[in-house]
Design brief:
Keywords: Ribonucleoprotein, Ribosomal protein, RNA-binding, rRNA-binding
Protein name: Small ribosomal subunit protein eS4
Organism: Candidatus Methanoperedens nitratireducens
CATH topology of the largest domain: Structural Genomics Hypothetical 15.5 Kd Protein In mrcA-pckA Intergenic Region, Chain A
Shape: globular
Order of helices and strands: EEEHHEEEEEEEEEEEEEEEE
Strand content: 35-45%
Number of helices: 2
Number of domains: 3
Helix content: under 10%
InterPro entries: Rib_uL2_dom2, Ribosomal_eS4, Ribosomal_eS4_central_region, Ribosomal_eS4_central_sf, Ribosomal_eS4_KOW, Ribosomal_eS4_N, Ribosomal_eS4_N_CS, S4_RNA-bd
Largest sheet: 5 strands, antiparallel
CATH superfamily of the largest domain: RNA-binding S4 domain
Family: Belongs to the eukaryotic ribosomal protein eS4 family.
């Protein structure tokens, strides 16, 4: 995506109409990439519907009335994405960004004590052998080497301290964040490792049994989910 964004060519997971206007707001660099996030203006105008147009949404955002993961964001092009917590202090409302069954972003109500779930996408070793966890939202956090790729860490907000660790393993609960089963929650039955350059797959079950690729699996709990799910 370039500096300008046409509605018809915008990502399919943006919950906007495609043919009402030619252009839609683009994204600036942020915690999430352009391919996995949505501009804050769209969240305010099209998802929360607390603004009638872009001008009103920009004013609300510029006044610091919107918090993302506990931090006021005044850039209307700021990119927010999966599992972010959107807070409106003036209304005492809090929401978590998730995907619905149509693979579109949707906001789910949360309480004021909502925590942030982050998947570990990678680990790197920095100076003096310190382990750095590279999280799904583009942020990094220092930790021990006890954590593994695809594990989930629960962070307190806004200080982003690890308060719980949920391993990526059979028996734990996961939410699917892409593909045909987007938005579904199931228990992991088997993790199928593929040798070579093939993609690992995961078998899950809820009312039925299904299989998806490893990259779509996001651990959300052990015996019970750590977040509100529908």
């Amino acid at each position: 995506m370039g500096k300008h964004q046409k509605r018809i060519a915008s990502p399919t997971f943006w919950p906007i109409t495609r043919k009402t206007h030619t252009w839609v707001v683009g994204t600036n660099a942020g915690a999430h990439s352009k391919e996995t996030g949505v501009p804050l203006l769209i969240v305010i105008r099209d998802m929360l519907k607390i603004a009638n147009n872009a001008r009103e949404a920009k004013r609300i955002i510029n006044e610091g009335g919107i918090l993302v993961d506990g931090v006021a964001r005044k850039d209307y092009k700021y990119t927010t994405g999966l599992f972010d917590i959107i807070s409106l202090p003036a209304l005492n409302e809090h929401y978590r960004v998730l995907l619905d069954a149509n693979n579109r972003f949707k906001l789910y109500k949360e309480g004021p004590d909502a925590v942030k779930l982050c998947r570990i996408n990678n680990k790197t070793i920095i100076k003096k052998g310190t382990v750095q966890l590279n999280l799904h939202d583009g942020s990094n956090i220092l930790a021990s080497n006890d954590y593994k790729t695809f594990d989930t860490v629960i962070l307190s907000l806004p200080d982003r301290k690890i308060i719980k660790h949920i391993p990526y393993k059979s028996g734990n609960l996961a939410m699917i964040v892409g593909g045909e089963h987007s938005g579904e929650v199931g228990k992991i039955k088997q993790i199928r490792k593929v040798r070579g350059s093939g993609t690992n797959t995961v078998v899950l079950s809820n009312e039925k049994e299904f299989e998806t690729i490893e990259g779509y699996v996001f651990i959300i709990g052990e015996s019970a989910p750590e977040i509100k799910v529908i």
